Amino acid sequence: MYDYIIVGAGSAGCVIANKLTENPDVSVCLIESGPENRSKLISTPLGIGGLMWHPKLNWRFFTLPEPHLNNRRLYCPQGRVLGGSSSINAMVYMRGQPNDFDLWASLGNKGWSYEELKPYFDAQEWWTDEERTAPKDSRVRISKPRYINRLTKVFLESSKDVGLPVYEQLLNQECFGSGVYALSQVEGRRCSSADAFLTPVAQRSNLRIITGATVCKILLSGDRAVGVRYRKGNNLLEVRCHEELILSAGAIGSPYLLLLSGIGPEDELLAKSIEVNHSLPGVGKNLQDHLDVTVTHKCNTQDTFGLSWPFLLKFMGEIKKYHQSKTGMLCSNVAEAGAFTYSSPSSPFPDLQFHFTPAFLRKHGFSLDALGHHYSLRVCLLYPKSRGEITLNTENVYRGPDIRFNYLAEEEDLTKLLSGLKQAREILNSAAFSKFRVDEVYPGVDIQSESAMKEFIRRNAETIYHPVGTCKMGKDPMAVVDPKLRLHGMSNVRVADASVMPTIIGGNTNATAMVIGAKAADLILENSLS
Ligand SMILES: Cc1cc2nc3c(=O)[nH]c(=O)nc-3n(C[C@H](O)[C@H](O)[C@H](O)COP(=O)(O)OP(=O)(O)OC[C@H]3O[C@@H](n4cnc5c(N)ncnc54)[C@H](O)[C@@H]3O)c2cc1C
Known about the structure:
The protein is built from 13 helices and 25 strands. It is α/β, with parallel strands linked by helices. It folds into two domains: 1-93 and 191-286 and 390-405 and 469-530, 3-Layer(bba) Sandwich (FAD/NAD(P)-binding domain), CATH 3.50.50.60; 144-181 and 291-381 and 409-460, Cholesterol Oxidase, domain 2 (2-Layer Sandwich). Helix 11 (411-428) crosses helix 12 (450-460). The protein starts with a strand and ends with a helix. It binds flavin-adenine dinucleotide (FAD).
């Protein structure tokens, strides 16, 4: 019997486990479906290429056919390992824009404005280039990139060509412009939420970490959770708690577990023959993500990450270099630089984000037409209006969730992404790239009319991996948790991960997921004191 059970050791879950176990009198059981985070693919930044489709460290979800993307089923990677998605992500560290959080507060979520969250961001960050002395508490280490590809520097030059201000580091999209990204890395290695918050406290006697254990049901007694049932290998096991159950299984995992436990929209549960334990219509709804489209050019030098004999030879040397000094190409997070711009002059704040990659990146790095050398500029829409949902699988509820993002259901989203595609083309066609440019491979020179570009988007757009919103925080009938992250209608269940964001933030989501974890821990401790 534990005081608290946390389901999911991802970006948020690791922070919560750390903070709750600071008090030796509090016992916590942290349950993670994936294994420990020991793989070199995780610690080596460029290992992200091998993590994208990893059979053990990644859930490798696919969506249902997306009706507005020509019924394509989109690949949706999510981390399944200690550290969760922060162990497989691209390590871009970004707070999000103050307006994003002020919007949450204005929706009735007291305590979630930027001013109120800023202390949490400040407290979780260790900017290793500026503060040499280690802080006493656990923090995520953030560094300037150790490696910047030659073509990434050209991208920064090209930004000037098109009138974008260039910053030394691109931290928040509040600064319209471009720059290299700050990275959650330390001395050339990834710093995941597990590295920052779990590893340093893993030996605490009041913390039990169970890996390889997939929770399949919340055990209830009236309006209280008393424990969870989980599968480990061929065994079905149970663990109990007497204070609180905290779901940190991510924007796909948390609503899925609630639905499996009979907590969700009544009609949907009944249709799948699941006993309704608690009717909560918003569970799994309000799914939001950043949809991304890529412009790719062939490069006439061998500087970018590519498939050629000279590059492979060079790469062998780079492996040695990395092992000796943790420098060089293997420190690259691939998405080395980016930019924020407006989709139209009437946009109140930047609503497009760019990621420049000195590589060919179709199909999440799994494309066989990548022979040779390329560079790509990806652009995503930051504030989509379209909403999707997580539901139970029609044939077998235990086969995993049904995911439908419903991308581009709103025509306005397509119009804005089209503006992004045009801007991405303009940047890659600017003078700075003239020495390197061969052909535009995607969309391709034939695709010039607006209707052809829209069709290109429908055929090719992909996720840039930021699902949120499926257990949204708020007070309206579709809210799943209240501003203290307590599940509406239950007395001791909280959700704390990316799923509680009522609206998606305008930037990469990992830093905010960790802040949600830190704030959740405070709310839980505040409750235990009272
Ligand atoms: C490929 C990729 C690249 C990304 N790049 C960036 C980036 O560069 N910068 C950035 O800021 N953000 C990035 N993100 C997004 C960011 O990493 C996520 O938003 C963030 O990690 C979400 O945190 P979370 O705590 O909500 O969920 P997660 O970190 O995904 O954690 C959920 C955990 O719960 C576990 N779990 C789920 N279900 C169960 C169950 N039933 N039983 C037990 N355990 C369970 C999972 O295995 C996982 O470990 C990226 C994401 C991906 C997938």
